[in-house]
Amino acid sequence: MTVSPRALIISAVLVILALAAAAFFALRSHSTTASPAAPTPVMTAPTSSPCVNKQASPPCINDAGKLIGANGENLSPTTTATPTPAPLLASPADFTVTVKTLEKKCFGSAGCNVTYRIDPKTTTPCFPSCTVLYEIVGGEDVQNGSFTLTGTTARFDSQEMIQTKSSKAELKVKVTDVLPN
Questions:
Q1: Phi, psi for 15 (deg, rounded to 5)
Q2: Phi and psi for 94 in degrees, rounded to 5?
Q3: Residues of 96-132 as b/e, b for ≥16 C-beta within 10 angstroms?
Q4: Which end of the chain has fewer surrounding CB within 10 Å, N or C?
Q5: What is the DSSP letter of 109?
Q6: Closest by alpha carbon to 115, among 84, 94, 96, 136?
Q7: What is the signed CA dihedral for 114, 117, 123, 127, rounded to 10 degrees?
Q8: What is the pLDDT of residues 19-49, one digit of tens each?
Q9: Cα distance between residue 13 and residue 3, in whole Å
Q10: What DSSP letter does each residue of 35-95 carry, written as one string?
Q11: C-alpha distances out from residue 101 to 105, 113, 128, Å
């Protein structure tokens, strides 16, 4: 039976990942004690390699096509690697942002200075985090702003200010984009 070099490499990588994960969890489960950590034993290949290619070091494939370790023991390769979670981003449609007026100072026909705070709500979290871009409309000019969303927690300025043409102007928010951090 012929085994391709690619299959050997993939099998070796999977075994190494499985061994690293096992070592990580073993060390993690013993790290709750205050005693100093014992030295980790170093595994060495036996003098006569169990590999088909005697120059190769385990883990490798034996004559029967099975994955074997340094002492000749059969290893079962992990068939699926744990995937790294892909970033999860919300879209502009996932947000409802309202404006809470904190203070309004009006100057007759000259308009008003309005101090406000945004109140963002979302139906979809961002992982690990994202920046949400928005526009405030209803002022003399459109005002751009942003806030950071980590999971479902938003971080934004406690207050902002905009000028309006009249005291009857109503401020509204439009989310324009969501960018990964």
A1: -65, -45
A2: -80, 0
A3: ebebeeeeeeeeeeebbebebebebebeebbbebbeb
A4: N
A5: G
A6: 136
A7: 130
A8: 666 655 555 544 444 444 444 444 444 456 6
A9: 16
A10: SPPPPPPPP---SS--SSSTTS-SSEE-TTS-EE-TTS-B----SSPPPPPPPB---GGGE
A11: 11, 11, 31
Tokens, residue 86: 């892909």
**Are 176 and 92 spatial neighbours (Cβ–Cβ below 8 Å)?**
yes
Location of structure tokens 């004559």:
63
Pairing mode, strands 67-68 and 95-106: unpaired
66-111, pLDDT tens digit by residue? 777 777 777 765 544 455 556 667 889 999 999 999 999 999 888 9
Query: Is 0.85 surpassed by the pTM of this model?
Result: no
Q: Residue 67 is which amino acid?
A: L
Q: Is beta strand 60-61 parallel, antiparallel or unpaired with respect to 67-68?
A: antiparallel
